[in-house]
C-alpha cells in the first residue's frame, strides 16, 4: 500500500500534477502521523495496510462531510476541490460494496458467527471488519446489523 502511494507521489511530481500531488502528500502525512503515534506506543513497525486503509477511509469521510458543508454554504469551488481529493484517495481503497452486497455480507457474518441476539452484535461487527475493512461504511452497517439481530 505504501509503495503504491509512493509510486503515485513520484509520478505526480514527474507529471507536475499539483492537485494530485498535494492530495498524495496529505495521505503521506496522515500515515506518517499515525506511524509516529504507534511508535510512541512501542510498535517499531508502524501502521499496517489495514490501518492505512482505515486512515484513507476516514479521510474520504472527512472530505465528503466538508463537500456537503461547502455546498450548503454556496462554496461550490471548495466542494469540487474536496471531491477531487476524494477521487485520488479512493484510488488506493478497495471497491466499496453496494447496498445489496453489504446486506449479503451482514447475513453471512451473522451465520458464520452464530449470532442470535443483539448481544452478539460485537462479534458480527468484528467479523465484518476483519473481512471487509475499507469496503463497507461501518457507521451505516451497524444499524443494519442491529436491525437484523433484533428483527
Compact description:
By secondary structure, the protein is mainly α.
Please summarize the sheet with the most strands. Answer: none
In CATH terms, the superfamily of the largest domain is: Uncharacterised protein YqeY/AIM41, N-terminal domain
The chain-level mean pLDDT equals 90
Structural class by helix and strand composition: mainly alpha
Number of domains: 2
Please report the first level of CATH classification, the CATH class of the largest domain.
Answer: Mainly Alpha
Helix content: over 70%
The CATH architecture designation of the largest domain is Orthogonal Bundle
> CATH topology of the largest domain, what is it called?
Hypothetical Protein Yqey, Chain: A, domain1
State the separation between the terminal residues, measured CA to CA.
Answer: 39 Å
* Poorly predicted runs: none
Number of strands: 0
N-to-C order of helices and strands: HHHHHHH
- Principal-axis shape equals globular
Q: Supply Rg.
A: 18 Å
Enumerate how many helices there are, as a single number: 7
Our estimate of the beta-strand percent is under 5%
